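Let's sit down with a protein and look at its sequence and fold side by side. Please make up or recall a protein chain and show it to me in full. Label the sequence line and the structure token line clearly, so we can match residues to local backbone shapes. Go ahead whenever you are ready, and we will take it from there.
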Amino acid sequence: MKQHLRDLLLTVLTPWRSAPAWRIAFSGGLDSTVLLHLLADLATREAIPPLSAIHIHHGLQAAADAWPEHCAEVCRLLGVPLDVIRVHVQPGASIEQAARDARYAAFIHLLAAGELLLTAQHRDDQAETLLFRLMRGTGVRGLAAMPEQRTLGKGKLLRPLLSVSRATLEAYATEHSLRWVEDPSNADSQFSRNYLRQHILPSLTARWPQATASMARTTAHLAEAQGLLDELALQDLAQLDSPTEFAWLGLLSLELAPLRTLSAARQRNALRHWLAPLTRLPDSEHWVGWDSLRDARDGSQPIWCLTDGELHRANGRIWWLPAAWLQPPAAVTVWHDPRHTLALAGNGQLGFNGEAPAGEFHVRYRQGGEVMHLPGRGHRDLKRLLNESGLPVFVRGRLPLLYQDDQLLAVPNLPGLDGTAHGDWRLHWIAPTNDQSLS
């Protein structure tokens, strides 16, 4: 058995032999203890990257206070360095999900570029995940369950034991007299996964002994199907990514007309792929928000509110606005020295192209009723000028306005309004492009 598991690990880990480091998520439980023991043994026989372990202490129960010491002792005996990280679990509806979020946030923080995090989920865990997601009515991507590998922060996450049963890991641990900790919460069947593990999976395997292996094959088929859906989404999205005159906004957008020509299922598939890195996706019932956005009459300003931002419609396109973009910027900023770029609180940067004019300026934001003087055109209402420019409405409250002596002097980035009429300069705004630059 040991040789079989060692050969399996070598096969799975071969593509990662040049990684800067291998790091093991070590809870101290059975599964991660077996993985750590296997890798420590492998390190004595093969040239592999530096090996270390990470123990996350969630602080959720008194019993867990003894686990870091246990993990330290196991790692000491195996000669594997250990990091113990304490995390704060945010209260919420699902303590399991909150603990997972805290754990993976810690892993992301610790992983350096190119490093590999190894976790010990096995075939029974995969079957449990499939059943859990079936009960939640998830789609193809969710039913593909846990991928063997994925990007995690600056590194990669790999699950090398997904094809191995828990019974095999138990037999290995018994054979090598390994010691591990038991989490008391695993016995509490009020948690959904524990209920599946204690009551449902045993009944299924009693009737169908190969149930977990069959479910693992199903997740593999579904992962392949999701791969094909992703390929189709990329093909469709390539047809929607046309240039826009407002590319300087740095906001993601798609052309609406060609998206409308796709079937409803292909629309949702393309949007899921596009939105997945940006926000938590809505369940099936909430996709009616997309229908309303898509089908709203021209000239209206429909909005689809999602967890981490909003989709807006303007200029024949749909635009993604992250949540931080929706927060109003600071009201007034004094610009003492226009020779230097001005950092706007939560709103990018403002500067001059060409020789900056002399004097002190104020940067304000729209309140309504602003008037701008244009040579040869006289005084014009700013709202009408912005309408003429075609600037999307959702940008206008964030657009910095340059004032001197209470006179609206320039509006950045918009030809004819950006100051060219007042001298050999143009006002240029580098808009915030993501949540990090807005925060």
About this structure: The chain has a mean pLDDT of 90.
